Amino acid sequence: MGQDSGWLHLKRLALIAGLVVLSLTGCIRVEVVDHQEKSDAKTTSPSQITPNKHDVAILAVDFEPQLDYKQIVNNPEGVTLLVAVENTGLSTETDVSIEAQLSADDGRTIIVERSAKIASIAPGETQVVRFTQIPRPPYRPAYQLSVRAIAVSGETNLTNNSRIYDLLITSTSN
Question: Given the DSSP bridges, would you call strands 79-87 and 56-64 parallel, antiparallel or unpaired?
Fold first, then answer.
């Protein structure tokens, strides 16, 4: 086991050194793949034409700073995750819970979990939930970001309550 752990340590050091060199030369980028785009391409159903009495939806996510590898590595404050939540229903909703999870290894390794509440959101209103000071995660070639709004009382359309994104670390060298 001692030889194996020494070998793994050397591989990790080589990987970290390679990342540092690539990040200094601007050769790493973060690609975001939205799983929702495929299901959004489907035709509109009658339930989407007539609003439900209770319905909250995750619209999109964004990051501060933008997902630029150099900015992430050089930002001691960490990253802020911004989640846009819309009340697509006909009723004002209160205490809406939003959860975010960053994982790796196809969801087997949870890196960060956060939750927040929206005190009140009116019909048609969009609010942005800020998850601040998310630390720089350990390096992986791919991460999965999952965000979801917990169903509000009386909500029946749960298809728009969550979004899943793959964050892929890729080299931009030719």
Answer: antiparallel
- pLDDT tens digits for 109-123? 999 999 999 999 999
Dihedral Cα 54, 113, 130, 117, nearest 10 deg = 40
Is the domain covering 28-171 a CATH 3.20.20.370 domain? no
Distance (Å, whole) CA 81 – CA 114:
10
At 106 the pLDDT is 80
CA atoms within 13 A on the CB side of 164: 10
Residue 157 confidence class, pLDDT cut points 50, 70, 90:
very high
Count of residues in the chain: 174
33 in helix, strand or coil? strand
In angstroms, the CA 171 to CA 54 distance is: 44
Q: Would you give the DSSP letter of residue 90?
A: S
For residue 102, what are the contacts with CB-CB under 8 A and spacing of at least 6? 110, 111, 112, 113, 134, 137, 143, 144, 145
* Cα(83)–Cα(131) distance, integer angstroms: 8
Output the pLDDT for position 173: 60
